[in-house]
C-alpha cells in the first residue's frame, strides 16, 4: 500500500496541546475531514493519538463521499461499521480495508476516546489513483450501441458497470430481438431486477419469465457495481458483493438482439419486453459490453454509438439528508413560519420501523394539535380538538396491498396543506385525504419532527408512542426549503441525536440470515425471522421441529404411525414423511413410493422399453442420509416373467436394468458385483427354474424392462417400500484414556451458525470436549468443573461464555447430554434437563466466526487439559462425526465405550435413566412418570370427592438466561411454536371432570377436562390457541359407565405459557378466573377415580406427591391413596392423532341391522348378568384375600427401593424446571 496523504507528522493547532487534531469542547459534531483532491482508490487507513498528550481515539466511524456531501458509512462484510482505535498516543493502528473505497473525501468520526484525556487524532490514508469514464443521464437520455449487422446472436455475454442514483426506478440496460429474446436490467423499488428471455416468443407465447432481483437501497446516491455473466443458460448476476447463480428457462442457448443495445433507458416506449418505461436518472461509469467500453466510444463520438443528451461528468444534486438515530431521544425542532395563505408542509421519509412520531405541532390555540405518526406501517393523522376529543384518519391502507406498507425502507413523500377549514394530506401517489378543521389552520408553536424534547411538556409536544427512527429529506415549510446545514451549525432551530448529511439506513435482511427458507423482517436496529411453514424454529430457523429418526420418536413414547422426520437435523436437507413401525426389538423406518402394486408389462422392446420411475416420500439426498445412518436397510423386489430375458443370450447385452438412488444404471442382480449378471439363486443353483434369472436388490429408483414383445411374453414386478432400522451413529463413541490424546477433524463450518451436540461420561473433574481456533476467533466446549459445562467463543466482539451448572456432579460416570448453538442472533447451551443458558448477540457487532485450524475433539493442539472419558454421538450442524473410525488410528483413544449402559437397546423404559453399577446397572426413574426396576410400573393414585394434588413450581417455569436475563425480542412474528408435552392415564365414572390444570403468574391457564361428549377436551384462556390435541381413545355409551383412557399429546401454541406457577390434579381450589362455564364446572367438581402416570413436560406430580409428602412443593387436599388401578389401563395403547380421529368417526356410525329387543329376552339377559356378577364377585373376593399378604410383602420391597431413590429425587427436583417445549430426552 502506498500512502496518499500523510498527516501523522502534520501539526494541527486547533486546541491547546501537542501536534495532531482535536475538536473544541463546544463542538456538537466532531469529525476530521480529509480531501484527497481527486477520486482515488483507498485500500487502508492508519490512526495515531495526538503527539505528547493523553488524547487519542479508541473507536471511530469512517464516512466517505465524492463531493463532500451525501456521506455513506463504510461497513465491513459482517455489517460492522466501527473501527478500533488506539490505546496510547504514539502507537499506530493500521486497518487494511477488505473492500477498497473509490472516493475523494473521507471523514473520521470519533465515537470513544481516552476517558482520562480528550479526542486526539492523526491519520494516514493508503491507496492508489483511480481513473474512470463517466456518463450522466438526466432521465430523458440514453446511449445506443448499434451492431455492425442487423442482429447479434451470442452464447456468451459479459456486461459490467457502476451506477449511482437518487431515484429508485429506471432502466439501465435493454435489448431485444424480433424472435422474442430480450434482456432488461432495471432499478425497481431501489433494487436491481434482471429480465432475461432466450425463448422464441412465437413458439412459447405463454411462457412466463420471472425477474431475478438483487441488491437493496440502491437509490442512495452512492456507487454500486453490477456484473452479468452469461454462458448459454447459466447466468451469474452480481450486485456489489452479492452474487446469485441461476439458469434461464426455455429451449434456447443464445441471446439474439436486433440492431442495438440501449443504456440508460428505452428510446421508443411501448416496445415488447419493456417492464418499466421510466428511464434511468443518475450516473454510470466504466460501462462495458463484451469488452467494449461504451462510454469511451461515446466520448470519442464513434459512429456505432448514439448519445442523446448524455454528458460525461457526474452532476451531484445538493440534497441534504438527516438521520434520526434514537427512537426515544431524537428530535428536530424548527420555528414556525407565518403565512397568510395557510399552512404547507412537505417532506420525504424512509424507515424500517412500523411505529414512530413523524411530526407534531400546535394548531390555532391550545389544546388543538395536529399529530402525524406511523402506526403498524400506516400513516395516522390525529387532530386533537381538546384533551378528550380528536379526529383521526389512516392513510396507506391501499399501499399495503402492493408493498410492505410504509416501513419498507423506501422513500415516501408526504404533503400537508390547510385551505380554509380543510386539511389536505397526500401520501406518495395516493388520492388526497381531507380532514375538517374547526378554525382556519394557523400554527402558533414550533414544529417538532421525529419526536419531542424531554422538557417539551410546556410546549405541548408529547410522544404518543415511540419517536421516529429513520431518514428525512426535502423538508419544505410554506414553500421554503429548510436549510439543514444551518440547523447543524446551530443557527436554526434545535435538535438532539441527529446525523446530518447521511442516511444511516441499512438492509439487515441482505443477505438473508434466516435459514431453511425463513422470511426475514427487520426494524431499524435488528432483524427477525419468520419460520412459519419451514419445519424449523429458533432465532434464525436453524433447528428442526421434527425428530431426526423413528428411534427418537420411540424414545419420546410414541406408538407406530406416520411421522415427519428430519434425517440431518439442522442440516440443509428438509423433512420427510415416513411410517415408523415400533416393534418389540426394532424400530423400522418405512419409506413408501408411488407404485407398490404388482405391475404387468407386455409389448416392450429394447428400442421402446417399459420404464417406471419410483418417487419416494423422501428426496434422493434424504434417502442417502437415511441409509447411511441406519444399521440395516432392505427392500423387497418381486419379479416374475414368462418368455422374457434379462440379457441377450448371445452377447450379454442387458435387456432390462434398474437404476440406483444416485442415478447409475445397474445390470447386476441379487447383490453381486457388476459383470456377474446373475442373482444368488443362479450362482448357488437353487432357483426354481434355472433357465430364468431372478432379481433381488435395493434401493431401486427406476426399473426398465425391454423384452416382452414376443408372443406369450410377459413380465410382472413389484417394488416394495424401503425398510431401515437402527442408528449406527447414535452409539458411535470414543474413549480417551490419555490427557494428551485427541481426535482431529476438518475445520468446523461455523461461520454464521453452528450447533454441536454430544453425550459424555467421565470421572475426571475437568477436560476440553472440543476446540477449534482461528487467528483471533475460537469456539470451545469444556467441562470446567465437576458440575459445570462451559461453552465459549469469540467472533471479534470479545469472548462470550455460557456456563450450565448442575446441582449434582457431572463426573459421575453417567451419560450426560450437551447441546451448544451459536448464530448471528444468539447463543445457547443446554446440558441434560438443566435450564437453558442464553446470550443475545449485539445487533451491530461482528457476525462471522473465522476458524482456520482443525477441529480437536477430546483435547487441544497444545495437548493440555485433555478430556478423560467417553464421548458419543458427536454431531455438528446435523452431520455426525465418525469417532470410532478416527479412534482406531489414534494413540491414547479407543473406539467404543465400555459399560452396561452403553448398549444399543434401552435398558430403562419411559425416560428412565440408566446408572452404571459395579456389578450391573440400575434405572433412575426420577424424571419418568413410571416406577419399578425398569421404569415400567405405572404410578397411580385414587382420588375421592374433593381431593387434589397441587404441584407448586419452586421458581418461574421459564428459560434461564445469562447476564442481564433480558428476554429475546418477540415482535415481528415470533417464528417458533411453543409446545407442552402432556401424558396421563385415567379411569373414572364422573362427567364433567378436571384432569389437569396449569396456572401462571400472569393469570394464564391451561386445562384438560373430561367433557360431556365423552372425550378429553382442552381449554385455555382466549389468547393461547392450541392445535394438535389428541382426543380420547374410547367414547362413552352413557355418563354412568366407567371410562379407561390414556391421553398423550404434544400441545403446540402460538403463544408461550409464561412463568408457570402451579399444576393441579383434581379439584381446583383458590382464586382463578375463567370465562368458559364448562371449565369452571369441571374445576369445581374435580376428579373422582384413578389417575396414573401423569407427566407435564419434565414434571411428574404423582410421584412427587408420593415421595415428598410434607414438602413445600407438593400439597395434597382431601383423601387419596396410592393404588394399582393404573395396571388395568395397560391394555389401552397410545395412538396417533389420526387413529383417534378414525375411532371417533367410527364411534359415530349408527348400528346396522339393529332391532328392538323383546322385553322377555331383556329380562332374561338381566337376570343372567346379575347371577354371573355375583359369582364373579365371590371369586374376586377370594383371590384378593389370598394375594393381600403377597401385596404387603411387595409393598415393603417397593418402599425400600423408593427410599433409596428418594434422596436423589429430592436433590434433582429443581432440575425439572427446564425450557418449555424441549423434547430432548435422556437416551440410554
TrEMBL record:
Q: Please tell me whether the keyword Signal is annotated for this protein.
A: yes
Signal peptide residue numbers? 1-22
Fibrinogen C-terminal domain span:
541-593
Domain (EGF-like): residue spans on this chain: 505-542, 898-936
Question: Which InterPro entries does the record match to this protein?
Answer: ConA-like_dom_sf (IPR013320), EGF (IPR000742), FA58C (IPR000421), Fibrinogen-like_C (IPR036056), Fibrinogen_a/b/g_C_dom (IPR002181), Galactose-bd-like_sf (IPR008979), Laminin_G (IPR001791), Neurexin-related_CASP (IPR050372)
- Topology of the protein relative to the lipid bilayer: Single-pass type I membrane protein
- Per the record, GO CC terms? membrane
- Disulphide-bridged cysteine pairs: 870-897
- Laminin G domain span: 134-314, 321-503, 732-897
* Chief site of localization: membrane
Transmembrane ranges, per UniProt, are 1160-1185
**Keyword annotations:** Disulfide bond, EGF-like domain, Membrane, Repeat, Signal, Transmembrane, Transmembrane helix
Pfam families from the UniProt entry: EGF, F5_F8_type_C, Laminin_G_2
Domain F5/8 type C, first and last residues per copy: 1-128
Subcellular location per UniProt equals:
Membrane
PROSITE patterns, from UniProt?
Answer: EGF_3, FA58C_1, FA58C_2, FA58C_3, FIBRINOGEN_C_2, LAM_G_DOMAIN
Annotated function:
May play a role in the correct development and proper functioning of the peripheral and central nervous system and be involved in cell adhesion and intercellular communication.
Family indicated by similarity: Belongs to the neurexin family.
Task: Return the protein name.
Answer: Contactin-associated protein-like 5
Annotated source species: Scleropages formosus (Asian bonytongue)
